[in-house]
Amino acid sequence: MRLKQVSLSAAISVVAGLTTATVGLTAPAALADSTAALPLSHYAHMVADTAHQHLFFSQGAGSTGILVTDLSGTPVTTLTDEQGATGLALSADGSTLYAALADGDAVAAVDTATLTESARYATGTGSAPVSVAVAGGKVWYGYETSDGKGAIGSVDASGTVSTPSLSHWSVPPLLAAGGGVLAAEEPLQSLSHVATFDVTSGTATAKADTDVYGGTATGLQVTGDGARVLLAAAQQPALETYRTSDLLSGNSAPYYTGGVGPASLAIDTDGTIASAGTAGLYVYAGSGLAENHIPFPAGTTVAPAGLTWGGDGTTLYAVTRDSSGAYTLDVLGSAKLTDTTLTLNPPQYAAPTEQFTFTGALATRGLLPAGAALQVTRDGEPLPDVTVGADGTFGISDTLPDAGEYTYQVSYAGDATHRAATATQKVYVARLSTGIAFPEFDSATPHSVVFRDTLSTELRLGSLREGTEVDITRTNEDTQETVQLPSVTVDPATTEFTVTDDPKAAGRFTYHLSFAGDATHEPTTSDATIQISPYAPALTLKAPATATRAAALSLTGTLGDAPYPAGETVTVTRTDAAHTTTPATWTAPVAADGTITVKDTPDIGGADTYTVSYPGDASHQAATASAIVQVSRAKSTVTVTTDKATYAYDGTATVTAHLGTTYNGRTVSLYATPAGGRKTLLKTGTVDSKGNLKATYKLTHTTTFTASFAGDYRYAPATATHSAAAQVKIAEKLGSYYTSTTYSGVTYRVYHHTVQPQVVGTVTPDKSGQCMKFQAQEYYSGAWHTIGTSSCFSMTPGSTGVTHLILTHAVNQRFRVRTEYVHSTKDTSNADTWGGWLYLTVRN
């Protein structure tokens, strides 16, 4: 058959990667998702010509035509006499469709405007081309060589067919092109032999040639920039991606297809990747981010090489086959549309007149549409749009004047890669509950009650208005009297308020606190009952220390915890010598500030005691204070004497007290205080007409006598003392004599001239350790003459002193001896005392 030759320059001169330029035609809008049955018994390849709104379907070896449909899958025509059309490729300008005719041993060129074959390029008998790609100003095809292996041929712009030696292939390779790079693949069980070539100059220059993970390829694509080659093979669980420069793995993200080898592959001009397997269709952004997953009915799968993107940047076309073998075209206008969900979170609170905010989030499987506008309505009325944040969140603020139920709807219109979404949220607007806690009292006295409290709001939300007030009443629980107090203002920043009151009384009081509420807050009330104890005022009294009898004097006092009610008085009593049991009593006024002035003219001298007593009132307890004023009295005189100055041991003294002039008191008391002993009352009585009072007292020790006058109304007390000495009692005896005799009636003890007479003295009371002396006299010339006085003898226990007389030339002489007690400075209880004389004489 004679081939028609046409120029290819117009068809391929504008090829640049996978970016398609359209001339003179406008791409249609994205189609809505739809399906259409395809009148195909077999399927090999599909090309979308969105510029002319056609789809081309080849059916592989054994077929005779290429099915042409519109973009919805409705058949338009069948291009006949296209024997075994398998691989299809569209020129860069979209004017020509190239088909590899496996049964025609040729590459056919079809005018896409007229849908007629414009040229056919013979590839050699038995070449059976199966794959075709357009790149570098040429049409490349994979074919079978005469020895049954594979090779790559090309058709240039002049229509010249050439068969360059491009690697070694055991079968006709599958071809793909993009960005000036040609890629070829053949299966090697679980591996694929892949080679890449730089064809930007029209001549293929090898870039890389190696075996990679692959298998029986069902899709081979080169990205628009020529940097990567993607391989879909049934033996792999996901798409494999390799760098075209070295065919090393370039999988920066896994293009997962459900764990079963992908059946088809398509890359859009924006880099979006579609891959299909038995688990459905997966769509990935060029970055590898999963955008969408579209499942198919059970038993339905995408045919190998059954995916292609339309030129509108949106629509994906898929050829699927069901379990009966029937083919269907799925038009997926929303394949790039990622599912989006809107979630709304109800506000923590929503109160009338108070701005509230509820939040939401827009979630998607793909890239978040940050900055997208969301439409908001309240009960159908539009509100300002809100913007999606970088993290997908947004907030909606609103303020409503009234309580009630409101329905908010938030809508996202969607975009080229996101589906629309809508969510609704009911918001219940209600006034916030409030509460007043039991207050904290700073003071609670009859004249000063101060307490602090808070007007709390539900969950501490909702700001209080400036000028918010709490009304206060006070009820006296004892009298049931209720008083309205001034309202207090609440600090909106702290919600605190302070109540200051002067109840003017003690007792049990209830403070009723009430908040009337406002547009945002519910009203509330609270009661606080407190027992206020009356003041315990301190009463101070100032009085002169002394005063003149019968002259006016003043005392001043102060009651604390003022003020005091008008008309209050204190009771004043004066206790003096004339009013011991029934004091003089009168009252004095209490000023409002608690000051008191007491006036008096005392006519009784002595220690006058003034007592001021306040009985208490509604807010004060009773208080008492006393002061003593020494009121002047005339001097009185009293003396005390004894009938002797010194008395023998146990001698009786007559004691006389004498009282001078007095007013109305003539009683005197006499006391005796022996040395080292206790003061003892001898007698109390009225003096006689001479002013004397007598008493007797036996002295065993030196004794001080006291006369005391207690004083009377006009004369002061007086006291006088007088001391009388008491001697000790001395017992004496002579020892060692052998007989007695008398001279002039006096008994003498007789001693032998060889004996030293013993003298023993004993003192009462006990004076052990004190001094005892002995004195001896001799009788001659008609008189007694002292012949010696001893020094002190320290008396032994038992208060005894002993000495011996040494007498020389004493025969027939008469002697006498006596003892003397001599008190020391430490002994003031008795005076010096001589004992009696003991007489003795000496004989041969």
From TrEMBL:
Signal peptide: 1-32
Alphabetized InterPro entries for the sequence: Quino_amine_DH_bsu, WD40/YVTN_repeat-like_dom_sf
Keyword Thylakoid among record annotations: no
Keywords: Signal
Record protein name field: Ig-like domain repeat protein
